[in-house]
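To close the section, here is one more complete example, presented without commentary so you can practise reading it yourself. The ligand is tetrahydrodeoxyuridine.
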Amino acid sequence: MTTIDWGALEAAAKAVRARAHAPYSRYHVGAAVLDEQGRVHAGCNVENASYGLTICAERGAVMKMVSEGGLRVVAVVVVTGGSEAGSPCGACRQVLAEVAADAPVRAIAVDEAGRETERFDSSVDALLPRAFRGALVTGA
Ligand code: THU
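Output:
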C-alpha cells in the first residue's frame, strides 16, 4: 500500500497553482495526485479564449499521471483561492472515477498570502456516488 504524504501533495498542488493559465476566470486551481508507485503528478487549470476548451487542474493531473505510466490514483489534493475550498467539477469527478474510485480527496482554499481559509476531506466515491463505469461494467 502506498503511504499518503499529504504534506507533499499539498505542496505540489500549491506550487503548480502558480502556473495556472486563467486569464478569463482569474480562478487559479492546482491539483496533485499520488499514483500507486508513490509518484506525485501535478496539474493546473488551462483556460482558452474559446472558453469551453478549458481543462481543469484535476484532469490535467490525471492526464499527466496516465502519460507517465501511473495506473491508479491513491489520493487527490485540490487547491483554490477564495474563502471556500473548491470542489472538483462534475467532469473531473467522472474522470477521477475511472482511475481513482476509492481515493480520498482533500480540497483546500488559500488567501492571497497563501494562508489556508478552508479545507474539507472527502473521497471520489462520496463526490460521485454510483458513477457510470461503462457498458462492459453495467452489463449492457
Ligand atoms: N476549475 C478547475 O480547475 N477545477 C475544478 O474542479 C473546478 C473549476 C477551473 C476551470 C476554470 O479554469 C476555472 O476553474 C473557473 O471555472
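Once you have examined the C-alpha cells, check your reading against these statements. The chain has one domain: 6-112+122-130. Helices lie at 6-17, 57-67, 90-99, 124-127, 135-138.
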